[in-house]
Amino acid sequence: MNLLGASGTYRDPEESPAGVTTTAPLDDDTLRANQELVDKHADALYNETAENILDWAHTHAPGALAVTLSMENTVLAELAKDHLPDADFLFLDTGYHFKETLEVADQVEARYPKQTLVRATPTLTRAEQDETYGLNLYLTNPTACCRMRKVEPLAVNLSPYAGWVTGLRRADGPTRAQAPALSLDATGRLKISPIITWSLEDTERYIEERDLIIHPLTKHGYPSIGCETCTLPVAEGEDPRAGRWAGQNKTECGLHS
């Protein structure tokens, strides 16, 4: 059903803009290889170290890998530099990020020049989305907004890769408490989560030891950072993701569900 706005009839937010919105299928050989790798190694990697998980991926992945970076921190970029040097970096530039997040992305590109930073963008600009779906879709239908500005751009930009590396941590909340270090996504690509066993304290220790790029908002009550429009600071001791989509019946953007 269409939404009626002041400027006319808006498009149903369940209908994405025209264009490619899904990941290209893998060839049969890569699909088969990925399934065999998960069947054989997922249990052994469940509680492995980040370094060993990435060394395993560098040795066994049957194709190119992408390292997804939210720019909340740059731990994955540093780990990949040493253990997955051929991987690309993939950043979802939603158009709604804090300016500090975009500044971190620029710093990553400068600090890790040997690895390509791919900036995945949505089909529509913010203004075009407002015109097509109505003002502030992130408030009226945050799931649709995340789909069009995160889930679909990730899907499209994963097409060249046999797998992707994520920053998932089991400590980030109950929806992630049993997440594996190695699995298959819906397209049959490897989904590799090297810091899955890390706590927030482990992450902060690694950042300090390596003198990594720091997202300034993490020092001001933002342990989990998404789009500026949908992220609030959290109280000390609160669930690190409590500030994401605060006031909405929503805990995940859809990238990991």
UniProtKB/TrEMBL annotation:
<keyword id="KW-0479">Metal-binding</keyword>
<feature type="binding site">
    <location>
        <position position="146"/>
    </location>
    <ligand>
        <name>[4Fe-4S] cluster</name>
    </ligand>
</feature>
<protein>
    <recommendedName>
        <fullName>Adenosine 5'-phosphosulfate reductase</fullName>
        <ecNumber>1.8.4.10</ecNumber>
    </recommendedName>
</protein>
<keyword id="KW-0411">Iron-sulfur</keyword>
<feature type="domain" description="Phosphoadenosine phosphosulphate reductase">
    <location>
        <begin position="66"/>
        <end position="233"/>
    </location>
</feature>
<feature type="active site" description="Nucleophile; cysteine thiosulfonate intermediate">
    <location>
        <position position="253"/>
    </location>
</feature>
<keyword id="KW-0408">Iron</keyword>
<dbReference type="InterPro" id="IPR004511">
    <property type="entry name" value="PAPS/APS_Rdtase"/>
</dbReference>
<dbReference type="InterPro" id="IPR011798">
    <property type="entry name" value="APS_reductase"/>
</dbReference>
<feature type="region of interest" description="Disordered">
    <location>
        <begin position="1"/>
        <end position="26"/>
    </location>
</feature>
<dbReference type="Pfam" id="PF01507">
    <property type="entry name" value="PAPS_reduct"/>
</dbReference>
<feature type="binding site">
    <location>
        <position position="145"/>
    </location>
    <ligand>
        <name>[4Fe-4S] cluster</name>
    </ligand>
</feature>
<feature type="binding site">
    <location>
        <position position="227"/>
    </location>
    <ligand>
        <name>[4Fe-4S] cluster</name>
    </ligand>
</feature>
<feature type="binding site">
    <location>
        <position position="230"/>
    </location>
    <ligand>
        <name>[4Fe-4S] cluster</name>
    </ligand>
</feature>
<dbReference type="InterPro" id="IPR002500">
    <property type="entry name" value="PAPS_reduct_dom"/>
</dbReference>
<keyword id="KW-0560">Oxidoreductase</keyword>
<comment type="pathway">
    <text>Sulfur metabolism; hydrogen sulfide biosynthesis; sulfite from sulfate.</text>
</comment>
<comment type="similarity">
    <text>Belongs to the PAPS reductase family. CysH subfamily.</text>
</comment>
<dbReference type="GO" id="GO:0004604">
    <property type="term" value="F:phosphoadenylyl-sulfate reductase (thioredoxin) activity"/>
</dbReference>
<comment type="function">
    <text>Catalyzes the formation of sulfite from adenosine 5'-phosphosulfate (APS) using thioredoxin as an electron donor.</text>
</comment>
<keyword id="KW-0963">Cytoplasm</keyword>
<dbReference type="InterPro" id="IPR014729">
    <property type="entry name" value="Rossmann-like_a/b/a_fold"/>
</dbReference>
